[in-house]
Design brief:
Glutaconate Coenzyme A-transferase; nine-stranded mixed sheet; seven-stranded parallel sheet; 18 helices
Length: 488
Amino acid sequence: MDWEGTYRSRLSGAQEAVKAVQSGDTVVYSIFPPRPLQDALFARADELSDVTLRLLAPAYDPGWLRPGAEDHFKVEYELYVGDFARFTIDERRATYVPNLFSLGMKAYDKEPRDLEPPDVAMVIVSPPNKQGYCHFGPHNWNQRNYTRRCKTTIALVDPGLAKVYGDCYVHVSEIAQFVEYDPPTMDRVQFDVAIKELDEDRRQAWSDLWNELPDPGPVLGPFAAILAAVPPDSARRLLGLDSPPDFMRTIAGYLSELITDGDTIQIGTGEPSRFMARLGVFDGRRDLGIHTELGWPGLAAMVRDGIATGRHKEIHTGKAVATAWTGCDFNDLAIIDDNPGFELYDPNYVLSPRTLTRFDRFVAINNAISIDLLGQINSESVFGGRLINGSGGQPEMHMAGAFSPNGKAITLLPSTALDGSVSKIVPQLEAGSLVTIPRFYADIVVTEYGIARLWGKSHQARANELIAVAHPDYRAELKNEAERLWWP
């Protein structure tokens, strides 16, 4: 096949490429989507109506999240909302698709189909290699899945993507249109102009971040248009540079007691789990494996330093495996770049129970917003039904730890929220709360007050375990409620 001729024939500009979108279409984007294609599509707003946008943790708005865009664009979030766009859920101007990564494509693939795939996928790819294959870079996610199911795929070609390995490539012939792209960067003068109108504290915080990064221009270039809208703390968190609070060091100390040599590790996004590697939980361990949905700060350093060799993994021996390296810090991404020791696969493979149950010692480490005294774990909502983020890959990974013969399903959470005014261990979840993990999969819960082991225990015994790791200020109240609700 003359793939080079095919590629050249499918090249166009962003404005031309997005003409493939028609009124009534559904357009899907992944994390860190192709911003020039988003801008070009929004520029066509007056020509379009009833276009559904399926987003995953967006961090940029070309205009369709603002009030008044609803006649042209309807917004839905798949699996994870994120901080940036949560206000649209609060304002009931967007909805949520509670897929699982492992089953998200099933409705499109089974016969007869339960659901038609989205019409258009917009993705980011590398330039084609000598054989005509492109990869999706470190933020792989569902981009290939949708490329192979949507009627039309438009790809932004980014020569700056880190080279990745694994089953995450697509041939030029599978993509309808390509738009070539030079990644944005900026020098210090441009950066100072971008932040000059900010208040002094925010301007100083951005300046400190610039000075901390070894090569800040390419890293912060994509933020240039939104520096005023994005808090510097959010950018630091995205880059894995924020500092953990002191109480998390105590949680890390307890968690380290639960990790043994040879375990295969998964860590979820959010707090406190993403700080655990930087807090030394895995220091001194040997031959850990990595099989995870996404990365965490310090993941690649664990491989570099010989902590995570993957030597005893039942599958992908000697490899660190994920569906995306999102969540790793910039030092990790430098280690991962062009390193065959790190592999990416589609989420419906990485998170499939058929894949995960092959591990004998799988340890899932995730977070919770609240846990009731029966062990029901809520990682998605507050104040009853207010959606905060979504499930992500937590359900599959947690259950993998539960089903692994010598594994563990660990849930981390601080004992309180809102400066200690609210206990995160509660007698019962509030009406409308979303149960991410049912009580019969609850295993180990860790707070700064210790380790609660729930597996195989009665409601009363579980309540006692959880009360023991709750904040001391709330233990008497929790015990009284437990006695009222369940004890004779």
